[in-house]
Amino acid sequence: MSNWVCKLGPEKITRAALPTVVPAIVAMLVVCIACAGPQPTPQLETPTATVAPEPTPTRLPIEGAIWILASIDGQPPIAGTHLTLTFNEPWFAGFDGCNDFGGRHESGQPIIERDGTISLPPIATTLQGCVTPPGILDQADRYLDAMKQDAKARVVDDRLHVLDGSGEVVLVFVREQPLAGQPKDPVGTSWRLVDEEGIYSEGDTTLLFLNSRLATGTTVCRDYTVGYAVSAGRIRSHYKGMSGSVEPCTQDAIYQEHQYVEDFGWADEYAIAETDGSQRLVVRTSRGKTLTFESLPQPAGDIFNKRWRLIRFLNPRTDSSGTRLSEKSDVTPGEKITAMFDIGSIEGSLGQNSCTYRAVGQDGTRLVGADETISIATAQVVENSCDDGASLSPKQQRYLDVLPTSERYTVFGERLVIITLDDGALVFEPERDVSGAQ
């Protein structure tokens, strides 16, 4: 078969010749189309600058990650604010720069549908009254509103975009990088805060996880106690309380103490990692701060060769919701309770040295074990040791009653903690004379 080429030459065509030339051109076009066979339909380019592509199924890459807000309405968040978002099937949670928020679909419906549609359940928030930085509450309102009105989600280059009903991108998030290390069980571990910037006072802040619900520690000013819970790398602080008086503390120390306790109260994630042969605990808060602690091991023998003074009881209790908490009860100087430990006994004074007591183990066996265990059979006042027939105060008697429930001990920094069978604790510090020497 011959190949046909349809071609129109460049000859100039006058207006007078149009009546005769146009029919000829039409006839030639018909012939050209016929000889060329079926032609493909022309493809028109659609402008992409004004039409946002439909979100694709992106639920799996979005789920479980912590997303940090990078821009809102095309602008970065207010300086000093840290806004986050997490989705996980029927629930979502986050921090709007001022308050924690979250919610879940009781039906089990996912927050993000397969087509990217965001369907929020009723939202619960905390009620912090933030006033700084300026505009923080307006930003928080806009942040949550952006996810309520026909919003859709998509992932672009590992960034999460939230689009409004018109297809405009209103929120952009970056994926938070996981902490180095593993979420190991922290119970029984003790730590010292690494404070290279001097925000909290280097070397003065410690942390001890007494059990799965309670932690305690020291700051540059006073001691503190927190209720906490951990699960799958997440850590939450339920409550916090301070012990002791601020009278001996400087204003700088009070500020540093407040800053640390406030920051730790926003704990969100944690991991324990091996670094240069030692362990480090890293706690990241929902406000974007990172607290780093170094391991604080203490030889078991540190319980001996010191006279210890009881400074507080930590009393386990259960609140109306069933949450296991702890109440602290400080010991006043007038109720002075001291203790000297050896392998087989504890001896000390009660109330300005007016009474003495002795605690012993079972049938003369070791009272203090090499593995930081304590097993006490009895604790009682030594006969005729109280001056002028002095009687014991309720806290002194309570101390003697609690001692036989002792289970284990730990020494961290300048604190000795004896942990009891009911998850309570006795907290001691080294006794000092009036000059401050031990």
Number of helices: 5
What is the CA-atom radius of gyration, in angstroms?
36 Å
Structural class based on helices, strands and sheet pairing:
mainly beta
Uncertain segments are: 1-51
Amino-to-carboxy terminus distance: 112 Å
CATH topological fold name of the largest domain: Lipocalin
Helix content: 10-25%
Total number of domains: 4
- CATH architecture of the largest domain, by name, is Beta Barrel
Short description:
This protein has 438 residues and is mainly beta.
Question: Can you describe what's shown?
Answer:
- By secondary structure, the chain is mainly beta.
- It is built from five helices and 25 strands.
- The protein has helices at 18-36, 59-62, 136-145, 251-264, 394-402; strands at residues 66-72, 83-88, 91-96, 100-104, 124-125, 152-156, 159-163, 169-175, 190-193, 206-209, 214-218, 223-231, 234-243, 267-275, 278-285, 290-295, 307-318, 324-330, 338-341, 345-350, 355-360, 378-381, 406-412, 415-420, 425-430.
- The strands form three sheets. Strands 17, 18, 19, 20, 21, 22, 23, 24 and 25 form a nine-stranded antiparallel beta sheet that branches. An eight-stranded antiparallel beta sheet has the order 5-4-3-2-1-8-7-6. The protein has an eight-stranded antiparallel beta sheet with strand order 13-12-11-10-9-16-15-14.
- Residues 1-51 have low confidence and may be disordered.
